[in-house]
Structure formats: structure tokens, C-alpha cells
Known about the structure:
By secondary structure, chain A is α+β, with helices and mostly antiparallel strands. Chain A is built from 2 helices and 9 strands; from the N terminus they run αββββαβββββ. Chain A has an 8-stranded antiparallel beta barrel with strand order 1-2-3-5-6-7-8-9. The mean pLDDT of chain A is 88. Chain B is built from 4 helices and 16 strands. Chain B has helices at 2-22, 24-34, 82-88, 281-284; strands at 38-40, 63-74, 97-108, 111-119, 122-132, 135-137, 144-154, 170-181, 186-197, 209-220, 225-234, 241-242, 248-249, 254-263, 268-274, 298-308. Chain B has a 12-stranded antiparallel barrel. In chain B, strands 1-6 form a two-stranded antiparallel ribbon. In chain B, strands 12-13 form a two-stranded antiparallel sheet.
Amino acid sequence: MKKLTFLLAVVLLFCVSGFAQQYKTREGNIYFNPNKNQQSKEYAALSKEATAILKVETSEVALLVPMKSFHFNNALLEEHFNENYLHTNKFPNGTFKGKLIGFSKSMLEKDGEYKFSSEGTVELHGVTKPFKAPVVLTVKNKVATFYCSFKIKAEDFNIEIPDLVKPKLAAETPLEATIPFKLN
Amino acid sequence: MKKLLILLVAGISLSQLAVAQDDLLGELEKEDSAIVKENITAATFKSTRVINMHSVEMTGLHNMQFMIIHHFGALWDNNENFGGNMGRLFGMNSGIANTYMSFDYTPAKWLNLGLAFAGNGALEGTAKFKLMRQQTGQKNYPVSIAWVSTMNYNTSKKVTAPNDFEPNKFTFMNQLLIARKISEKFSLQLNPSWVHYNVVPYGYNHSNEVFSIGAGGRFKITNKEAITFEYSRQLNMYKDITDKTGEVITYAPDLISLGFDWDTGGHVFQFFFSNSYHASNIYQLSANTKKDNFGQWCMGFNLNRSYSMKKTVAVH
């Protein structure tokens, strides 16, 4: 009986680690266009190096993007982004951690489009703020792509926009995150 | 005993779950800090010119830069009365303005090509090569190094009179630029230069080569404003030079400039006082005339604007 209990204990332990199924990606894309005139892509930036983890059983998700991986069309603007606005030497990463509300493991098992929401905290430029936004999950060809479109206010994160530049920018900067996970 | 064992197993499994929950972001952060990154020093200078001299900075990749460098006349004319000098507006309204207008483009990260109108009928072509970028992390380089090659073509036939020989119209300059961003606020650059004249007036000890060594730097006052300085010393070909008319001149071997940078967001505005009126580096470094006092210095400014030529950010 003792042997059985011991065996049960070992199996249980294995099951627990097995439950902690995680998906990781290093190819998350984050795009933002701060221009007041959204038709113009003059000030738009794109990072293709966001990393993310999804823990399936608990619907928890974490995301990290190196701020220096945001590239702009205009080199001078990229320099200002790093040196004057986001101070990327001091705050090298932007992060998000939270939960997917309404997500279930079964979604990953069948191709299709699923809508739910995410809730958590965002840390940017040294400031942590609560975050909530709708998410669209597309599962196709063994890839689960999470798409989230949201807006942030630069002032909320102590990002100083000089008065000469303010009239050209939208009051809230729209961002789009596209995070693909390979399903094995 | 059995109960204790079950409790123990349950406890361990639950604690495993708890630890894993908090550490999702921690795991990403640990992986991110494990990667040895390239920390390339950015913005050693805010412009591709320190003041008159080229800086190690290059216009961004696939970006085209339009630049105007303007030198006005003397700040104060000693032959004029007070009213006349006020009207001259410290050289800005003196009738003398040497303008240098250039377009340059960076087709590759290490190469910048430019074409300029250098004033007084001269055209210049420049090539700037980025040889080393100051960085820490994956590789450690203490300085940024660049090389600038300039070819000046004087379209005026008066330069080559009386025989109008085309090669006489060319003059070349090569400079090695070595700079270090010493701190967030202070950058320093060394620039040894070599000017080659295809033709020089006949004179004893005259040489076609003019060498000089210089230094420049900037102190950042705020994120947008900085104080800049430049000093170059000509090493030869300035004393008792016979010019084409037979007259003997001594040039001033010291080239000094003091400036103020203002970054307005879209472009960098560089304002300066200099002891040379010439718009082109070639004449600044080889034919700078002597100034007796600060009143004979001039005011000038650089304006630049860059445009991206290629869309690197995909249109959504």
C-alpha cells in the first residue's frame, strides 16, 4: 500500500508539471501610429521582436518587448524616440502581464476565430498601469495568433511630448499587437 | 502516515502551481537579460556636422538629408559708423553670404553619398564611410570612426586661366574622424585632414598638399540644446604664399568656431560664430584669412532636414 501511495504521489507530481503547458514565441509584432492623421504612416513604428508566454491552463499571459526594437521610417525620429521620449537606455523593456478572460484551452484545438478580452498590467517607461482590451484569436494551420488593438495615453506613462510636436499627434496612441504561437 | 504523505504531495504540487503563476513575466525577463545585446552608442552628435567640420554621424539608412550651411559677413565693420553697422545686422545684412547647399543619401549603413553647391561656382561631391561604431555589449569599441572624402570642382574658367585645363579645377579633401561619446552630455571628436590642390600657384616651398589637425565637441545643456566648439590648426602652406597675381599672403592657420545647437523636433538648427567666411571645408582649412578681432568673425547657421526614401515600416 505504501508503494502504491508513493507511486500515486510521483504520478500526481508529474501530472501537475504536465498541466503547466506553456506556449512561447519570440516573433510578436507590435505596431503603433501616433499621428493625428491616421492615414499618414509618417511617424509609425514597428517591432518584430516581442516575446510572449501563454500558460494554457490558467489563461495567463506575459509579454516583453525591447523598446529599441521599434523601428521608424525616419532615422531622426527613431533617435528622438530612444533619447528624448522613451529613454530606452534607462527603461529597456515594455512589459504586459495578465489574464485572458473568456479564453479556454479548447479554442486551441479547433481552427477558427475567437473573441474574448485581456486584463492585466502594463509597464512602460517605468510606470505601471492597469490594462484591459478585447482580443481576437485566430487558430489556423497549427498557429494561434492573438491580435489585440488598444490605445494608450503618453502622459499616463510620463512620456513628455514637446509643445511643437503635440498638435501633430493623436490624443491617444493606437497600438496593435499580433502575437503568433506555434501549436505543436 | 498515509494522510501525511498525501498532504505533503498536495502541498508540493500546489506550491509548484503558485510559483509558476508569478514567474511568467520573470521567465521572459530572465531570457531577455541572458541575451548579450549590441549597445551601439547613438547620437554622439545631433547633426552630421559638428559646426563646419563633418561629424561621425551619418544621415539615417535610406534617408535623404538636405542641408544648408550659411556664412554671413563680418560681425562689425570697423570702417563703418555705428548706424551703418546696425544696418548690417551683424553681418546678416552685409551683402556677403557664402552658402553651401547639399543633398546626401545613405544607401547602406556604412556609406553616405552627397552632392553640394559649395559657393562661388564650386560643386562638391562627398562620400562618408562609417568605419567603426562606438559600442558596448557584444563587442566593445571605445570610439566611432568615419572617413570623409570630398571632391571640389570649380566651374569658373577664371580659376584655370589662361589655359582652361580641366584637371586644374579639381581640389580634394580627405578627413579621418574619430569621436567618442564620453558621457550623455559630452562628445569629443578629432579630425586630421588632408587637402590636395591639383594646381597651386608657383612659389618656393609651395606644396599641393595642405595638412591640418583639429578637434571639435559638444556639451548638451538640455535634451534639445547644446553648445559646440571646433578648432583646427593648419600645419603647412599658410606662411608667405604667392598667389596667382604674384602677391604674397599669409593665411591664418587657426580655424575656430563656437556654436549653439537647437533641436526643434523635425530638424537641428546649428547657429555659430566662426573666424572663416568660407562655405567649403577645403578653403576653411587652407585659405583662411587673418582676422584681427572678434568683430571680423562671422555669424552663420546650419539647417538640415531629413526625409525617409524607403518605407521600412510596413503599411497596415
